[in-house]
Amino acid sequence: MTTATALKVHLRVLEIHRTTLRVVMLRPQTPARFSTNHFHDTWHILAGSDGAALFGRLLWGLAFQRHPGTLLLIGDPHLVPTPFEADPPDPILVIPDGLTSVDDDALRALKLRLRRAPGAPKTIRWHTFNMPAALEREGERREWLRRGLRAGLPRDRVPRVGIAQRSRERMARRAGFVCFTAPPAILREHALGIYEMHTWQGRWGMYHPIAEHGAHQTWGFDGEFQLIPGFADGVSAARVARREVLDRDSGPLATHDEREAIYRHQDHAAIRLGEARRKPR
Length: 281
Prior knowledge:
Blueprint: E1 7-16, E2 19-26, E3 34-39, E4 42-47, H1 49-63, E5 70-74, E6 92-96, H2 104-116, E7 122-126, H3 131-150, E8 170-174, E9 177-182, H4 184-196, E10 206-213, E11 220-227, H5 231-246, H6 256-278
Parallel strand pairs: 2-5, 4-11, 6-9
Antiparallel strand pairs: 1-2, 1-7, 3-4, 5-6, 8-9, 10-11
Helix pairs in contact: 1-4, 5-6
């Protein structure tokens, strides 16, 4: 999953409400998995290190698309329950602002069309030209910022990348999709930050805020990309814990009390999964 080779993705061209949508999707054989949740009034896209690398590359390529109606969809089979309480995820839709515009009626029609008769996809190459050079420049910029802050430069005097376009960046649940909308410059900024997360070696997770809003000391975020170390194992343990606590694998979102019970049981489920994995075959 390096930036040196082009990705292969699927493209479906669909007519929705007299508008042509070019829906970019992952191929079934792509191994990365994602999940979503809404916690502390923030929408989260959850993944492991492979998902961070892939999502960063997808955002970078999307920022350079020129065909109106292009958008990125991450759906089945690349969605899994959350690694916390195994709540069901929502499909993820990334919309390049200024290139593609869809209202909620169009999103509902798109969801129905994909479920009933999506049509045969076309395989295309998803290029990430210039991303390695941009990653290098971003590292130099961050070092400059760190030096400026250590030298006493006030935070409000440190230039912010893309600040003039922040009002065009949004993240919300719309028509059953977790939708992230941003102009190309912001997509490129987040692409670099999220891609770099895949090298994280810490025991605990880390996050990259997106959909920033507010001013001065009241900055907030409508969304985050959250890297979960051991993401796949966490999903497996959460599924086992949910099934044993609630006697079901799926269904509606867990209540507060159900979540607490699943959290308490999840460590035991993780230990059993680890022991089963270590047993000789």
